[in-house]
Design a protein that fits this description.
The chain has about 325 residues and is α/β, with parallel strands linked by helices. The protein has 12 helices and 8 strands. Strands 1, 2, 3, 4, 5, 6, 7 and 8 form an 8-stranded mixed beta sheet that branches.
Length: about 325
């Protein structure tokens, strides 16, 4: 059985199981405790509540540390729920119950810590305006942004209508897709697009985000690949590599420019790699609850940002 007191003394194993060092765990813990206590207050003072507070069977996850550990291990390893239950001395049904209970709290905790990327489903239910991003990070006027789409495999849908729209011609399998915008200097994920079908093109996916330029005066540079060719969003200035003309060759200056752009744009690929350290968004997605694909991606991006913040702060 995995418990926090037994695992914390083995820091290397702790990091491999959770994806975070004990110091990073402590940084998340305070915010997770706040989110958990807020949830308990809502339940306690719910007018529709009939049972006395504290009624029912005692939980096997006694401490708040064990609750957070349970959630991080699930996101990091993404085991089958019966195996998750075996690791924490829970039945499969209770493991499923607590996973769905704690994942929204972890997402909320990452929001309290200002590590969760803003996305369409958070806050007021709309896409984040470029003006808001620049208000929080004014240095991006010079640095710009990096953008790319990422896909994660999913099981073949039983619904016949979903089989075609979920099929990605690029990956040759059924996938779910998200658009990410990151910083070019430290790989922090700033914006997470909603989860879309695998057949949706990257250009279409970012256009559907409805990014609002607000009162941005100078267009914000956005480094991307040729999948975004033709994109026109007010407030964004697209920077793309030069495509080789048919039957011709690129000049040496164009090749040099493409290499320089590739050296910068690869950082968004590194950010996506950091997000997919969480196997919940790297392995084949198998959950069926509506909205859980968005939630897992939001949590994975927030946990990646925690690692980025700790690494650069320590450096």
């Amino acid at each position: 059985m995995i418990t926090y007191p037994a695992l914390i003394s083995r820091s290397h194993l702790f990091t491999r199981l959770t994806g975070h060092t004990p110091e990073e765990f402590d940084a998340i813990l305070d915010k997770f405790r706040s989110a958990y206590e807020e949830k308990l207050r809502e339940r306690r003072f719910n007018p529709a509540r009939k049972r006395a507070f504290g009624a029912g069977r005692p939980s096997h996850l006694l401490s708040i540390e064990d609750k957070l550990l349970f959630t991080l291990v699930y996101v990091r390893l993404y085991p089958l729920l019966f195996l998750q239950g075996l690791m924490f001395n829970l039945s499969e049904s209770n493991a499923c119950l607590w996973a769905h209970e704690f994942l929204p709290l972890l997402d909320q905790a990452l929001g309290f810590a200002h590590q969760r990327p803003f996305h369409l489903g958070s806050g007021n239910g709309r896409g984040r305006g470029l003006e808001e991003i620049l208000t929080e990070f004014p240095e991006l006027i010079e640095l710009g942004l990096l953008g790319d789409g990422t896909e994660r495999p999913t099981r073949k849908p039983k619904n016949q209508s979903n089989r075609k729209i979920w099929y990605s011609g690029k990956k040759k399998r059924h996938t779910r897709k998200n658009i990410l915008l990151s910083r070019p200097d430290n790989n922090r994920i700033l914006y997470l697009g909603k989860t879309q079908d695998g057949s949706v093109h990257d250009k279409t996916a970012i256009e559907e985000e409805g990014l609002s330029p607000g009162s941005v005066r100078d267009p914000l540079p956005l480094g991307a690949d040729l999948g975004f060719a033709g994109l026109e969003i007010p407030g964004l200035r697209l920077i793309l590599p030069t495509k080789k003309p048919k039957g011709e060759e690129l000049t040496e200056a164009q090749k040099s420019q493409n290499r320089t752009l590739a050296q910068i744009r690869v950082r968004v690929e590194n950010a996506i790699c950091g997000v997919k350290r969480s196997h919940a968004v790297a392995d084949t997605y198998r959950n069926i609850n509506p909205g859980l694909d968005d939630l897992l991606m939001s949590v994975a991006c927030g946990l990646h940002n925690v690692r980025v913040a700790y690494r650069f702060q320590k450096a």
